[in-house]
Design goal:
heterodimer, A: about 300 residues, mainly alpha, B: about 325 residues, 2 domains, two-stranded antiparallel ribbon, 2 strands, about 0% strand, flat
């Protein structure tokens, strides 16, 4: 271990980015977005992540067009069959083709995840930016509300909302968005506090721009980096949240299905050895969440580089 | 510094009050009439009216809220009709179990994550760093219940080494130590993934700082620089993480406990949600929320004490 430790502590680790830029701004002529894209594209994990996301979107939405299975009528005659040529991943306990079920489940998981995350981020961004701009008592009250809601662990809040409201897809989306907006709100408020001291904000005010204009056309576009990174992580969290809720029994009711529900159904067959009911759904969830995490990580690294040159 | 601490404590108090308001609102959004739920659908009007008066449900909402707060201050969290016990007694029985599960996972995860993060930072961008990073990503992306199920499949169903269920409340938890292994392992792995990533990036942030260059140029040995200087600074963000994880110790890990039938707070919450046992649900929520606020207050104070560079906003 001593050799390992010694080798890592070079005087100037050349492979690490320098934290303090040497003298002032250093935009090398290229636009910020091109720089971000360049750093992003160098990151192999990010490309793998993007590829996986594209694959799963195609798998869930285009797949059923290519691999026809019927998902409407149960057929107890062929239930619990292993993988075969007719049913590539076997059949589940009600006779539906498992691979088709996976595609259908993917549609719901992805839809709910994306919709909930985007809705949550939209609400959170506006709340946070407004609080940051307003300052003073309004800011304090708005942030205390965020803190109070954050104090309740989000899963408990989700389950509580699940017992209060009925569980259809729109309501699940709203429930998850209700929990997701808290993170972006704090983040964007922090960014707003930093940005509002910058000259361009003062310039807009001097030119007679309203607060609303400052908020929508200046603060939010300049925080977009942080927001986009947060969206990717929120999508990952939302997909896990839907899966966990469905697993616990508070999710969307059948016949609509999602990967979490399929996992929960598959657990009953752990000891029977019906591996095709358990592993595919789980692997799908892990892969898609990993993909979003890779992309989010890469975006965050790319933006760190950009932020350092401010 | 004192001003910051006072402000922080006041902030926490406001948040706690906010939490009680939110919980109270949730209590009143719940479906069904609590009186009917207790007495049944065929109760007479007189009975319904008398129980309503007795429970104070005919008073205006703000008065009900104050009465409820008054009860809370006396640790009276309500009564669970489904389990025929006071909510506080149910909680008191379960909190130690959750403490054991989440506490030991937290400690284990910390003890493993700090050396792992250091190792990864020092051997960055080499194969061992990549594999460990990959593993961390996999465990971090896995839903907790999936990891628990995989462990059960491997260690209980296939190999038969460990029992699939946690020890139940009737026996003491320590009587079946090998049944504790899987739940703790599940929670530890997930926490470890997050902590080691944080530790690694925190170490990397510190390794580029000027003070490392200065120390090396002064001739300080690599090991001393690493352990005496970089490590201490790198631990600070991890300290925040730990502070934020402490409320989880009280909350229990709902998913892990459910998968393993572990008799803790999280499992109590899950069962109560299934049974629509609202007093317990809200009692648990309230206790956990208050623990969270206090936990993050402690974390902030520790952070302020540990890092003198912070500007107290």
């Amino acid at each position: 271990m001593s050799v390992g430790f010694g080798a890592g502590l070079d005087a100037t680790p050349d492979d690490l980015p320098v934290t303090t830029p040497e003298g002032g701004e250093a935009y090398q002529g290229a636009s910020i977005w091109r720089m971000t894209l360049a750093v992003f594209m160098e990151n192999k994990l990010a490309i793998i992540g993007l590829g996986l996301i594209v694959f799963f979107v195609l798998f869930s939405f285009v797949g059923p067009l290519l691999y026809h299975t019927q998902q409407a009528f149960t057929n107890p005659n062929i239930k619990d069959q292993g993988p075969s040529l007719a049913h590539l991943l076997g059949t589940d306990d009600t006779g539906f083709d498992n691979l088709g079920r996976l595609m259908l489940g993917g549609q719901t998981s992805l839809e709910v995840g994306l919709a909930a995350a985007i809705l949550g981020v939209c609400i959170g961004v506006i709340w946070g930016a407004a609080a940051g701009l307003a300052g003073g008592l309004i800011d304090a009250v708005m942030m205390r509300i965020v803190d109070s809601l954050l104090a309740i662990p989000f899963l408990l809040l989700l389950i509580l909302l699940g017992t209060i409201f009925s569980v259809s897809v729109p309501e699940i989306i709203i429930a998850i968005a209700f929990v997701s907006w808290l993170g972006p709100a704090r983040l964007v408020r922090g960014e707003t506090l930093t940005l509002r001291t910058r000259e361009f904000v003062q310039a807009v005010r001097v030119m007679g721009g309203s607060q609303r204009r400052v908020l929508l056309r200046h603060i939010i576009p300049n925080s977009i980096g942080v927001i986009v990174v947060n969206v990717t992580f929120q999508v990952a969290d939302a997909i896990v949240a839907v899966a966990t809720l469905s697993f616990l029994g508070f999710g969307i009711a059948p016949p609509a299905t999602n990967w979490g529900l399929q996992l929960s159904n598959g657990i009953a067959y752990v000891y029977a050895g019906y591996w095709w009911l358990i592993y595919p759904a789980g692997i799908c969830i892990v892969l898609i969440v990993m993909a979003f995490n890779f992309v989010g990580d890469a975006l965050r690294d790319a933006l760190e580089v950009r932020l350092q040159r401010r | 510094m004192i001003g910051y601490l006072i402000r922080r404590v006041l902030q926490a108090l406001v948040v706690i009050i906010g939490v009680t308001i939110i919980t109270f609102i949730l209590l009143h959004m719940l479906p069904g009439n609590p009186v009917r739920a207790i007495l049944g659908p065929r109760a007479s009007k007189a009975d319904v009216a008398s129980l309503t008066r007795q429970l104070g449900l005919n008073k205006p909402l703000p008065v009900q809220y104050l009465l409820w707060l008054w009860n809370l201050a006396h640790f009276n969290l309500g009564f669970s009709y489904r389990q025929t016990a006071t909510v506080s007694s149910l909680l008191a029985a379960r909190i130690p179990n959750s403490l054991l599960l989440v506490g030991s996972s937290l400690v284990l995860a910390l003890v493993l994550a700090i050396p792992l993060g250091m190792f990864q930072a020092v051997r960055r961008n080499r194969p061992d760093d990549y594999t460990l990073t990959g593993l961390a990503f996999i465990f971090y992306s896995m839903p907790t219940f999936w990891l628990g199920i995989i462990l059960i499949i491997i260690f209980s169903a296939t190999l038969g080494w460990l029992p699939p269920e946690a020890p139940q409340a009737s026996a003491s938890l320590f009587s079946q130590l090998n049944a504790l292994i899987l739940p703790v392992a599940t929670l530890t792995l997930v926490t470890l993934a997050l902590f080691s990533r944080y530790m690694r990036s925190s170490m990397l942030d510190n390794l580029v700082q000027d003070y490392v260059r200065t120390a090396k140029s002064k001739g300080v040995s690599n090991r001393r620089v690493l352990f005496r200087h970089v490590l201490r600074n790198a631990l600070i963000p991890v300290l925040t993480l730990v502070g934020l994880s402490i409320p989880g110790v009280v909350a229990g890990a709902v998913v892990t406990e459910t998968v393993f039938n572990y008799p803790g707070m999280g499992y109590l919450f899950f069962l109560s949600a299934q049974n629509d046992d609202f007093p317990v649900l809200l009692g648990v929520t309230l206790v956990i929320a208050i623990a969270t606020v206090l936990g993050s207050l402690v974390a902030d104070i520790l952070y302020a004490v540990a890092d003198p560079r912070i500007r107290y906003v």
